[in-house]
Prior knowledge:
This protein is of the alpha/beta class and 357 residues long. Helix content is 30%, strand content 22%. Helix 2 (49-60) packs antiparallel against helix 8 and helix 7 packs across helix 8.
Amino acid sequence: MHARIAGLGQWFPERVRSNADWPEAFSAASRMKQGDRTLVDVPSDERDPTLRIVKRYLAEEENDPFLGARERRVADASMTSAEAEANAGRAALSDAGIEASEVDAIFSWALVPDRIMPSNACRVGDLLGAKRAWSASVDAACASPITHLNLAAALIESGRARTILLTQSHLATRTFAMSHPAAPSVGDGAAAVLVTASKLPGILHTHSVTHGEHHDAVVWCRGKSDESDPPWWEPGGALAMGSRSPDATRTLMQDTVPTAAHTVAELAQHAGFAVDSIDVLLSVQPRRWVPLAIAEALGLKPQVATETYRRYAHLGGVGPIVNLIAARDAGKLHEGARVVIYAQGAGFTRAAAVVSW
């Protein structure tokens, strides 16, 4: 038995935050390079052709305080990440024409979970009415969609399940003050994928590698040292997305495109297909140009990639699935199309999957 993607879903808040919502003082501070820009500034380099591609794209947004974004969705404070995932899950179930009662398992990832414990997944299943499903958080940060696909395919191929729902949420705007330099680059949303048993191959191969030496590069923290960043269970300031290793963060940001290209090339080698046979390329989109630059670095036309950054901004692990839906809506996913999905997440994990549509 094989596993295939049978349904896709997404959810976005109604509220749209445009660039006009920021005061001129924000743009002035950006031009002066003020504030904590660890998660914003991408170092440029020309030591290899891939980084020269990155430098060209960086030049296009050099003086843009909004980092290429035009709009982003903002969830109400009352919206929970579990509810956001359940909304996306309903859409995926409807897309596949499958009832929640048929779901065997639910895997969930939330950038901003509602609780440290229990897992969002438990509430997602309850909200959906998936009464016979078991649920669990499966967290590889923004690389989680690939991990979800890998585990879902393994369960189905082994005969231990037939229908698995994968949900991801990214309610990031509530964690960044609008004055933060990175605030314009993040948006809120949720996505879901329904994976089912199939006689024909669908999820063909996945490839993931974790580089734990970079575990402090992007973290939830209160400060940048042990003194200013006590453990979460001890009293202290508010937790925020930041870095305990700024040098590692800068390196990872600079190498996003070459890392992605390298990972996709490894996937192609392991799965036995030629890189130039990729029909559709999808990835995380920390900046608008990242999916396009990955395609170029692989020797593909930028049009092979799909991005939705200008409309939604950075969506973390939700982004690749939203881009998959956008590719389908654009008519790119013809029968038998070779689709490659790339994602990377704090920890640091790089991951890719190849799917036959």
